[in-house]
From TrEMBL:
Pathway: Metabolic intermediate biosynthesis; (R)-mevalonate biosynthesis; (R)-mevalonate from acetyl-CoA: step 3/3. One of its GO terms (molecular function) is hydroxymethylglutaryl-CoA reductase (NADPH) activity. This is 3-hydroxy-3-methylglutaryl coenzyme A reductase. Keywords: Endoplasmic reticulum, Isoprene biosynthesis, Membrane, NADP, Oxidoreductase. One of its GO terms (cellular component) is endoplasmic reticulum membrane. InterPro entries: HMG_CoA_Rdtase, HMG_CoA_Rdtase_cat_sf, HMG_CoA_Rdtase_CS, HMG_CoA_Rdtase_eu_arc, HMG_CoA_Rdtase_NAD(P)-bd_sf, HMG_CoA_Rdtase_sub-bd_dom_sf. Gene3D superfamilies: 3-hydroxy-3-methylglutaryl-coenzyme A Reductase, Chain A, domain 2, Hydroxymethylglutaryl-CoA reductase, class I/II, NAD/NADP-binding domain. Its EC number is 1.1.1.34. It is found in: Endoplasmic reticulum membrane. Belongs to the HMG-CoA reductase family. It comes from Liquidambar formosana (Formosan gum). CDD domains: HMG-CoA_reductase_classI (cd00643). Pfam families: HMG-CoA_red. It catalyses: (R)-mevalonate + 2 NADP(+) + CoA = (3S)-3-hydroxy-3-methylglutaryl-CoA + 2 NADPH + 2 H(+).
Amino acid sequence: MPVGYVQIPVGIAGPLLLNGREYSVPMATTEGCLVASTNRGCKAIYMSGGATGVLLRDAMTRAPVVRFGTAKRAAELKFFLEDPLNFETLAIVFNRSSRFGRLQSIKCAIAGKNLFMRFSCSTGDAMGMNMVSKGVQNVLDFLQTDFPDMDVIGISGNYCSDKKPAAVNWIEGRGKSVVCEAIIKEEVVKKVLKTNVAALVELNMLKNLTGSAMAGALGGFNAHASNIVSAVYIATGQDPAQNVESSHCITMMEAVNDGKDLHVSVTMPSIEVGTVGGGTQLASQSACLNLLGVKGASKDSPGSNSRLLATIVAGSVLAGELSLMSALAAGQLVQSHLKYNRSNKDVTKASA
C-alpha cells in the first residue's frame, strides 16, 4: 500500500543526436555531477555529427526448472524441446498467452536430473516478464501430457537470469541488445572533452578492458554504464533492480582517420525496458517517456517504442562514458565532483 513518494532530482541531458534525431534525455539521480557530465558527452557527440545505434536482438527470457527421476529422462525432454520439428507446436501453445508475446527460441541446460529451460520471446512494447511467464506456464501445462513425471520446481530457475549478473545474459542477451557508436572529431576531443585521442584510447584499454579483466568483471567492461542506466530507468518508470543486467556493457575506443579522431562504441546485450505497464504509468515517469516520444504502445509498429527507448539508453551511456573517461584522462574527476556536489547546494526547497 503506497504511503507517499521519495523525491529524486531530475535533470535533462542533451540534445542527444542519435540516428539523425534529437532527444532530451531525462535522468533521475542524487549524484550532482552525473547530468552535467552526460550533457557534455551529448555535446561532443552532437558537434561530431551524432551517434548511430543498432538494435541487434529483442527477446525477454524466463527459465523454469523441472526435475525428473533420472538424468536420462531430463535429457529426453531437453531433446524434445530443442527439436526443430516440435517448435511450431510449442510456439502455438506459448503464444496463446498474449497478442504480442511470440516465442523465439528455447535453450536448455541440464544439472543432473534437473532441467533448466530458457524461453526467449518478443513482448511488444512491454518489458515482458509477466508476458513470458504466462507463455511458459502454458507450455509447462502442455508438457505434462507427454511427461507426467515432470516435477515443476519453479517457474524461474535463475537461468533467465533476472536482476543478477550472469554470463548467460552477457553472452546470449536478455531484453534488447544494442550497439551504439560515434566518431568524435579531434577538435571536439580537445575543446569539449579537454583531453586527447591517444590518452582516451590508452585509458580505455587499461581501465575498462585490462582493469576490468583483472577484477574478474562479468559484463562490466565500462566506466560507469550503470550510472546512466539507473538514472534513465528511474525517470522513465523502468524496474531499477534490472539495472544489474541492463548495465552489462563493453566500451571500446580506438583512434581513426590517421589517429586524429576517436571511434567510440558501447555494446549492451541486456537492456530491459518497456513503455507500457508497471512504473511507466506513473504521472511523472509517463511525462518523461512522452518527452522522448516513446510513451505507451506503438499502434503502427508494436514494439518499436520500447526498442527506441533501449537505443536511447545505449546512446546516453555512450555520452556518459565519453565524458567520464575524458575527466579521468584529464585528471578532472575530483574537481568536477566537488563543483557539482549536492551537499554544496540548497535543494530543500526544490519542490516548493
